[in-house]
Write a structure and sequence with these properties.
- The chain is of the alpha/beta class.
- The chain has 2 domains: 119 residues, 3-Layer(aba) Sandwich (D-Maltodextrin-Binding Protein, domain 2); 87 residues, Periplasmic binding protein-like II (D-Maltodextrin-Binding Protein, domain 2, 3-Layer(aba) Sandwich).
- It is built from 10 helices and 15 strands.
- The strands form 4 sheets. Strands 5-1-6-15-7 form a 5-stranded mixed sheet. A 5-stranded mixed sheet has the order 11-10-12-9-13, sandwiched between helices. The protein has a 3-stranded antiparallel sheet with strand order 2-3-4, with helices on one face.
- It is globular, with a radius of gyration of 23 Å.
């Protein structure tokens, strides 16, 4: 009996050693996000970076066998940072555009959105062209800013953070803000300080898709992230996260 117990213990130890030998550590990656764009990415009351994108990248990493750390990074330097290798990827409500695809690699799209206009409740205009001769705000370097630039006669005022644009509109310094629809809903309809002052007018007037950004040429990481995205979508995890963060 004693010999059998010893043999059993030795076998168990051998299995543990073998399992440890074959265990493959998860690849650790750092992902940048400008946490100023609720409900996609923002800093909560506990100073923690949260939002749909944060939950989504964590779910994708789990499915892809990656270990992810999210780094809160200002938008004006976020693309330069991934080029310089300061982090491995960006998840920050980044619209996939031909101009960006020429400089960076993207995963497959994971969210469809559009730009929309927010104005004070007294404003009668329903589209950007109705606000000629006035100033419109948008976060610098975003597709919202690009859309305002397309309309002659409207002056674009850019901000490092979209929240500053809404502050300026509340103070009467600009006549409207253009941003992604989920963020517009958060600021115009859900924030107590603004819900009685602002309104969303019309419908979203662009069709865009978000993708995760990776340094040009890093095909291996793109493939890993795409694998994770496919698994998240197959398991309907993304649908659960959209419900949690009240995305359409």
């Amino acid at each position: 009996m004693k010999s059998l117990r010893i043999l059993t213990a030795v076998l168990a130890l051998g299995l543990c050693v073998a399992s440890a030998a074959f265990a493959v550590p998860k690849k650790a990656i750092t992902v940048a996000s400008d946490a100023t764009w609720p409900p996609m990415e923002f800093v909560d009351a506990n100073k923690k970076v949260v939002g749909f994108d944060i939950d989504f990248i964590n779910a994708v990493a789990k499915e892809a066998g990656l270990q992810v750390t999210v780094k809160n990074t200002a938008w004006d330097g976020i693309f330069a940072g991934v080029e310089a290798g300061q982090y491995d990827a960006i998840i920050s409500s980044v619209t996939i555009t031909p101009e960006r695809q020429a400089k960076y690699d993207f995963t497959v799209p994971y969210v469809q959105i559009g730009q929309i206009l927010v104005v004070p409740k007294a404003e009668k205009g329903t589209k950007i062209a109705d606000l000629k001769g006035k100033k419109l705000g948008a976060q610098i370097g975003t597709t919202g800013a690009m859309e305002v630039k397309k309309v002659a006669g409207v002056e674009l005022k850019t901000y490092d953070e979209v929240g500053l644009a809404f502050e300026d509109m509340a103070a009467g310094r600009i006549a409207g803000v253009v941003c992604d629809e989920p963020t517009a809903i958060t600021y115009a309809l859900q924030k107590k300080e603004y819900s009685s002052k602002f309104k969303i007018v019309g419908k979203s007037f662009t069709k865009e898709a978000y993708g995760i950004v990776v340094k040009k040429g890093n095909k291996e990481l793109v493939a890993q992230l795409n694998k994770g995205i496919a698994a998240v979508q197959k398991k309907k995890i993304d649908a659960q996260l959209k419900k949690k963060w009240q995305l359409k």
